[in-house]
Amino acid sequence: MSFLCRIARRTLVYVTSMCLAFASLANQSFCQGPAPSQIDVETVYLFNFAKFVRWPAERDGEQLNICIAAQKAYSDSASRVVAGEQIGTRRLAVKLVSRPEDVSGCAILFVGLAAKDHLNDLLNAAAQHATLTVSDIPGFLEQRGMISLFVVNNRVRFSVNLENVDRSGLSLSSELLKVAVQVQGKSPGVGAR
Fold it and tell me: Does domain 3-29+36-184 have CATH number 3.40.50?
């Protein structure tokens, strides 16, 4: 088998496994136990998003903080999801935030409906750092958000605003963009790694 064929095969296997991983989340088909709640599915998405983001070099090696500005059920679920997990050499941690000044040190910021009144202030704070912003608040992408979670036919899906991602100095893997329902801004492949 030629070198190019081996590379193509590995790439196909990788992309297929990524699509299957996100499809299983979207279908909420976990192997054991009762069906997960929407909160559980959304926090698993946060963990998986972290695998497909490239932060600026100065963030390398730091602990990867997933910050939650939402009801406590989100931070409890996220803590269970990331317990003992690492992405590369970065240990994951969950931090509950309520004020814009708490956003410093966040790699990912999830803003839930409970924090809707503080959305603008939280996004302004996140813009000062290389922070991926995610929310399930309707219209989030139009308010400078990066990834919007929403439910269609009882399944959690997501859309991406690449212009907002690019402004932050982050880049998203093209594998992540391939499984998004919609990518606003530049076409997939531009601004993606």
Answer: yes
